[in-house]
Amino acid sequence: MSVIVQSGSKQYIVEYGQKFIVDRLKASEGDLVDVEVVYSFGDYSKVKSAKAKIVAHKRGEKVRVVKYKSKSNYHRQYGHRSEQTVLELVK
């Protein structure tokens, strides 16, 4: 069964044992962190908090931003890569 967990200001629908990607957390790999359960379904309807294991820290894909104004010969391109953490929900 699925649960909806919150990390930071984002919510994710995950199942126990599933890996999911969140914004970078300040903990080392292999640590257990608490994630807040916003809503739970079925058998897990009484669950209010859960533990997640940090699997890895990585960087996301490059996001390109392009600014362009016609008729004035203005164009600018830049980008960034966000820091991410891979979590695995454990029972």
Look at the helices and sheets and give the structural class: mainly beta
Largest sheet properties: 6 strands, antiparallel
Give the tally of β-strands: 6
Beginning-to-end CA distance, first to last residue: 12 Å
Biggest sheet: strand arrangement: 2-1-4-5-6-3
Give the averaged pLDDT, no decimals: 92
Order of helices and strands: EEEEEE
If helices are DSSP runs of H or I spanning 4 or more residues, what is the number of helices? 0
Characteristic terms for this protein:
91 residues; mainly beta; six-stranded antiparallel beta sheet; 6 strands
Task: Characterize the structure shown.
- There is one protein chain.
- By secondary structure, the protein is mainly beta.
- 0% of the residues lie in helices and 70% in strands.
- The protein has no helices and 6 strands.
- The protein has a 6-stranded antiparallel beta sheet with strand order 2-1-4-5-6-3, with no helix packed on it.
- Strand 4 (32-40) and strand 5 form a beta hairpin.
- The chain is elongated.
- The model has no long low-confidence stretch (mean pLDDT 92).
Quick structural summary:
The chain is mainly beta and 91 residues long. The protein has strands at residues 2-7, 10-15, 19-23, 32-40, 49-69, 74-90.
SSE diagram, text form:
Layout: E1 2-7, E2 10-15, E3 19-23, E4 32-40, E5 49-69, E6 74-90
